[in-house]
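Posting this for the archive.
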Amino acid sequence: MKDHKPKNVFINGAISSDFIANSIAKHQAKTTIGAHNIFLGQVRADIIDGRIVQAIDYSAFEDMANEKFHEIREDAFSRFELTCMHIYHSLGKVHAGEVGLFVFVSSKRRKDVFPAIEFIVEQIKKDVPVFGKELFEDETHQWKVNN
C-alpha cells in the first residue's frame, strides 16, 4: 500500500460527542461486526506546580503525522483481525473535559478489539509527531509530556 495516500485524521478543535455518536451509528448497518472498542482521550484539568490546565493547544507536523497514523493502521490490521478502524485527532485548542483523540476499532469478535485499541493508542503516543501545549488558567503555558 505504499502508493496509498494517507488519510487526514485531523479535526480542528475538540471532537464532539455528536461526531462520536454518528461514527458509531454508521456501523449499525455492518452486520458482520460483533464487537467495537473505543478510546476517547479527554483533556484533564491537571494541577501542575499549583497551576490548573485549562486546555491543550495541539499542533503537528501534519503530513508526517498522517503517514505515521497510516503506518500504525496498517500494522494493527496485520496484527489483529479487525473489520474497520477509525482514528481522529484534534488540532488547535481543546478545553479540559473535551475529547482530543478518538480511536474506534471493530471486529467480528471481541477478543481482537481489546488488544488492538491498546496497541494503537500506545503507538500513537510513542510515534506520532503531535504536540500539546498545556494552557493554564493563569495564562502561562508549557509543552506537554506524553505519559
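The longest strand covers residues 82-95. The mean pLDDT is 93.
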